[in-house]
Design goal:
Layout: H1 3-10, E1 53-56, E2 63-64, E3 85-88
Antiparallel strand pairs: 1-2, 1-3
């Protein structure tokens, strides 16, 4: 298990920190994991630490996690030969 996974498992997800006034309010975006308001350009949630990055399968166009080795929708290998297009998650 990686260190990030261990850190995530040890976090108290019932405790939510209060957002800084004005942060994320204009975007309407929030973390899918903890519902914390997000600012444009965030790649990680400042509250729970979850990655906000997603990719798109170059074959079927479905959203995929950039660390996956294959698309779970069509089976296309997501490697250097057929990379996923990386972007930000839209929640």
């Amino acid at each position: 298990m990686c260190m990030m996974c261990m850190t995530h498992m040890m976090m108290d997800h019932g405790e939510q920190h209060q957002p800084v006034a004005g942060v994320g309010a204009a975007t309407g975006r929030s973390c899918a994991h903890c519902n914390y308001p997000l600012q444009p350009g965030f790649t990680f949630c400042p509250n729970c630490g979850m990655s906000l990055r997603t990719g798109t399968c170059s074959s079927c166009g479905q959203a995929v996690d950039p660390i996956w080795k294959a698309c779970p929708y069509c089976g296309t290998q997501l490697s250097a030969s057929a990379p996923a297009t990386v972007g930000h998650a839209h929640h």
